[in-house]
Amino acid sequence: MAKKDYQISVAAHVLRYARTSLGLTVEEAATQLDIAQRDLEKLEAGDQQPKISQLRSMAKSTSGR
Predict the structure, then answer these.
(1) Residue 7 CB neighbours (<10 A)
(2) Model's pTM, two decimal places?
(3) 8-36 burial by CB neighbour count: b if 16+ within 10 A, else e?
(4) Which residues contact 11 (CB under 8 A, 6 or more apart)?
(5) For a 10 Å CB count at each end of the chain, is N or C smaller?
(6) 3: DSSP letter
């Protein structure tokens, strides 16, 4: 059976804070996360909720900082 990739409710300002505290631009963060810049902008604006896989990717990409 295939695993479902659920969306999670995360406050948009938390995602923006995480990125800016790492000193990353939207473009740099989107590149590191391997997502479109527009998709990251939607997440940070609260227009879209992240999927669990996206949150995992975000955590992994920042774990070495």
Answers:
(1) 12
(2) 0.80
(3) eebebeebbebbeeeebebeebbebbebe
(4) 46
(5) N
(6) P
Give the model confidence (pLDDT) of 5-64 as tens digits.
Answer: 888 888 999 999 999 999 999 999 999 988 999 999 999 999 999 999 888 888 887 776
Whether residue 5 lies inside any domain: the answer is: no
**How far lies 50's CA from each of 1, 24, 53, in Å?**
23, 19, 8
pLDDT of residue 9: 87
**pLDDT above 80: residue 1:** no
The amino acid occupying position 7 is Q
Cβ partners under 8 Å of residue 38, min gap 6: none
- b vs e for 50-63, b when ≥16 Cβ sit within 10 Å of the residue's Cβ? beeebbebbeebbe
3 found inside a domain: no
